[in-house]
Prior knowledge:
Number of strands: 18
Structural class: alpha+beta
Order of helices and strands: EEEHEEEHHEEEHHEEEEHEHEEEHE
CATH superfamily of the largest domain: D-amino Acid Aminotransferase, subunit A, domain 2
Shape: globular
Helix content: 10-25%
Distance between the termini: 17 Å
Bound molecules: 2-OXO-4-methylpentanoic acid
Number of domains: 2
Radius of gyration: 20 Å
Largest sheet: 9 strands, mixed
Amino acid sequence: MNISMTKTTHPGKLPPAGQLGFGSVFTDHMFLMDYTDQEGWHNARIVPFGPISISPAASVLHYGTEVFEGLKAYRRPDGAVQLFRPWENVARLNRSCDRLGLPRIDERDGLQAIRELVKTDADWVPSEPGTSLYIRPFLYSTDPTLALHGVHEATFAIILSPSGSYFSDGLKPVPIMVETEDVRAVRGGTGEAKCGGNYAAANRAGDKAMEKGYSQVLWLDGVQRKYVEEGGGMNVMFKIAGMVVTPMLTGSILPGITRKSCIELLKSWGIPVEERLLSVDELFEAAKNGTLEEAWCVGTAAVVSPIGELAWNDEKYEVNQNRIGALSQRLYDELTGIQWGTRPDPFGWTCVI
Ligand code: COI
C-alpha cells in the first residue's frame, strides 16, 4: 500500500510523563484512508492531526456505524519502539466490521498503517515507567444519506495518544459496582464487537457508578441478569479458592487481547484458568466466605488493574483487604515486562517497528 505523507508545519511536544493521563494528548499526525464501493480502499495518507470534515448526514453521526481498536506502542530500554500483538487488533477490527456491515480492511495494510504512523510520530512514545503510546484505529461509515441501507462509503483512521495510567490513581485497587438496571449487551447483539455504540450505551451506568464513588461498573448478562460479563471497558478475572475464573466468551463479551494474553500467561505458569459462566451469587458468596482471593480488570488501556472493593445492591466486600494481590501483581509485572521489553518474550507477541 502506498501511503502519502504531509508533515505538520507546527510540531507539538510530548508533555512530561506526570501530565499524561489517558487519551487526552495527541501526536502531530494521523492516518486516513477512504473507501467507496467503486474504488475500494484508496487514498491512504498520513496528514497533520486535526479536525475531520464530514457530511452532517453521514451515517456514523446518526446510526453509530463505527468500530474501533486500542493497542499500544512501548519504548524499550534500548530506545527502540515495539508493538504488542497488533495483528490481533487488526483481525478483531475486521470481525467488528463484519458485525456492523462496514467494509473490511486488508490486514497487511492495517498493520502497515499502524507501523508507519507510529514511526512518523516515534518521538511521542514516552519512556517513563508506566507510560506508552496508545494507538486508536477506528473505521466509520461516511454515507451522506439518512436512508437505512448498507454502507457504501467509509473512512479508516488512526490517531495516537501518549498515555500514562488509565485510572487516575495508577495501580491502586479500584472499587467497582454491579450494575443491576442497565445492560451492556445481549447475545446476537453487538457485545463482542468493539463498536462505539456499546460504550455509549454504558455511559449512564458508568456515570451512576462514579456518582456513588465507584470507578466503574461490573456488567451482568442482559437476559438473566445473573452472570458476570465484564467491567466498563475491560474484561475481569477472579481468583477463587486458588483457581482463576473469567467469564467465558458467550457472544456478548468483548474478546479482549489482554484477557487472552493473561490466560496464556497463567496457563504457562501452571495456574488453572476456568473460562465459564460465573454467577453474581457465586462471586458474592466467595467474597463473603473469604474464598475470593483476588479480583482484577484486564484491558489494553487498563493493563492489569486490581479490584479492591465489590458492591452489589446493599452488599459490599473488600477484596484482598483492598491491596494488590500477589497474582495480579505477577501478571502485571510479566505482561508489562514483555510489553516494555524489559523481560523476554517467549510467545513472540511483540514486534519492533
Ligand atoms: C482499550 O482498553 O483499549 C479500550 O478500548 C478501552 C476504552 C474503551 C477506554
